[in-house]
Amino acid sequence: VQKCIAKGQKPLLLFPGPDSISLDAPNNSHMPDDGTTTTQAPSFQQHDQLLILIDGTWHEARRMILQSPTLVESSQQVQFTADCESIYDMVRKEPEKHCISTLEACAHALTLLEPDENVALQAKQSLEGSMRDM
User: Fold this and answer.
1) Of 20, 91, 107, 110, whose CB has the highest number of CB atoms within 10 Å?
2) Beta carbons within 8 Å of 60's beta carbon, 6+ residues apart
3) The pTM is what?
4) Tens digit of pLDDT for each residue in 36-93?
5) Residue 94, Cα to own-chain centre: how many angstroms?
6) How many Cα atoms occupy the beta-carbon half-sphere of 115 within 13 Å?
7) How many Cα atoms sit within 13 Å of 86 on the Cβ side?
8) DSSP 8-state secondary structure symbol assigned to residue 10
9) How confident is the model at residue 73, as a pLDDT?
């Protein structure tokens, strides 16, 4: 995290929140609590972008975020706003329809962040293939 900040970049923290920028909405839209949408300028497709994922149940992940204010403050929170379907339901039931596993979130984020579409697709297929094999 410190190396990323030293290069003048903010790491991306994949966790929903009031200041999160959508990775999958057009133009990386930001959706404030009042329901309006403003467009954010940054493009996240960089070869050296740091993506941080919190792994655990939703309850555990929320607790980790609450106990890590420095991480949250030094990162740009990002989230997905488009509907995602989970293949995780075969293994375990998610608390909400829009919830996906950390592995699926990683695969989806890579497809949106990786500048090389072939690399992104291969990573997604490998990650999701591992989950299907479970």
Assistant:
1) 107
2) none
3) 0.75
4) 343 343 455 555 789 999 998 888 999 999 999 999 999 999 998 887 777 766 556 6
5) 17
6) 7
7) 18
8) P
9) 93
